[in-house]
Specification:
222 residues; Rossmann fold; 7 helices
């Protein structure tokens, strides 16, 4: 049995009990502390949300530091599909655990992924019985898209953001994921960020915050 994930956490800025849960999934070779750096930007807009940024379940196998959700040593289609499925099992159990811990439902939970974290989130969310509030995916891809229709169980709202100068994950993955998700009825908003490499920029983060406030039913400021 794989040990449950752990990593940086931040309780609601309001000081009250959590009314929403936001889980952040880092990219390969990083760890939970990486995306936890987004929390100071997210928390003021989501003051009643708890933020969890778990470390990936495996040591990064191509460097002496960092974590991974699954190995990228073999980037063939079958290897990636197997890897993301294995990671999905771990993340599914973690989400169940954390929803129970905070007494929240899927409708009160969003997942933000970066790169490999996006791949993992897109594997998990549509295959859960009840839809998450949203998946926000930066600089990622949809792995094994051909299996989605047969395995689909829910249709969470999805926001995909990708730099058109991404040197790590092909920017074409944005349109490919949008097409595959839309084909099975998942509502998708896709945003290409001009001149952006494999990163998250201010406008992309602002768009993500707006979507999260909307899916959580928060009134617009001002």
């Amino acid at each position: 049995m794989t040990a449950l994930l752990s990593g940086p956490e931040a309780l609601p800025l309001s000081g009250d009990s959590a009314r929403q849960l936001v889980v952040l999934l880092h990219g390969v070779g990083a760890d939970g502390a990486d995306l936890a750096e987004l929390v100071p930007y997210l928390a003021p807009a989501l003051p009643d949300a708890a933020f969890l940024s778990p470390d990936g379940p495996e040591p990064y196998d191509m460097a002496p530091f960092g974590r991974q959700w699954f190995s990228l040593a073999d980037r063939s289609g079958p290897a990636l599909a197997q890897g993301v499925r294995q990671a999905a099992t771990v993340l599914d159990a973690y989400l169940d655990q954390q929803l129970a811990r905070f007494g929240l439902t899927e409708a009160e939970c969003a997942v933000i992924g970066f790169s490999q974290g996006t791949m993992t989130a897109l594997q998990v969310a549509p295959r859960r019985e009840r839809p998450l509030a949203a998946v926000v995916g930066f600089s990622g891809a949809l792995v094994a898209a051909e299996t989605l229709a047969a395995e689909l169980r829910s249709r969470p709202r999805v926001l995909l953001i990708h730099g058109d100068a991404d040197e790590v994950v092909n920017p074409a993955c944005l349109a490919q994921a949008e097409q595959a998700l839309t084909a099975v009825g998942i509502p998708v908003l896709a945003e290409s960020r001009p001149g952006l490499g494999h990163s998250i920029d201010g406008p992309g983060l602002s768009l993500a915050i707006g979507v999260l406030r909307q899916v959580f039913g928060l009134e617009e400021d001002g």
